[in-house]
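user: can you give me the structure for this one chain? tokens are fine.
assistant: on it. calling the predictor now.
[tool input]
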Amino acid sequence: MSIMDSCLRHLRFADYSQSRWKNGRGVTREIAVARSRDSEPPAWRISMATISEPAEFSSFPGVDRSLAVVDGGGIDLTVDRVSRVLGVGDDPARFSGDSETSARPIAGATLDLNLMVDPLRAVGTVTVACAGEHETAEGRWFVMALTDGLEVRIAGDRLVVDRLDTATFEVGDGQHCWVSLVPDRDTPDRDTPDRDTPDGATRDNDTHASESRVGNTADGNTADGKAPDGRVVAYLIRVSA
């Protein structure tokens, strides 16, 4: 196992830089970006945005997008006239940046996580992460916490992040390693869905996550053959250029 820049880095919500949407209808908080040396758009960008009223998304031709809800009452997302409801902890929506896209908050302001990737220069994924261990392949990784006091462990290093903060690390070319996500047992669930219950139903607040190796592997299998713990604790974002 080889990890580049092995120590975990802590990106705090309060430190995310803010900018107006391209269409002027909202504000984006930038978490990380692969900046170009010239006027070329970035190869990838990870950001957050608040949706407090019905809004049309800016158009980004040639860009692949992934969107997930990280706080609030969820949104009704419409992409090319096809609608889908997204809530905290749901699988992300994936769509083309030049699609006709809009969103309507369902119950008050909602905060979303957005990954934009130029597929000609980079690859990127966003996946739901339950408590336990997850196998990570080469690339740069970001763990977006959905609960306070989430402990992230990797290669003997550990970092505790709060809700909407991000832990980041890199895995070297051709390598892989395990990252453990351990929620604070004293922190109640914030209505994130149980992956074993239908329709995004939430778990009781007194249901706690297991610290055993029960997370997903890179190929979608669990590390020891057990079912993963049902508590969704984070989104895992991987980018590789």
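assistant: here you go. The two ends are 20 Å apart (CA to CA). The domain at 15-119 is CATH 2.60.120.10 (Jelly Rolls).
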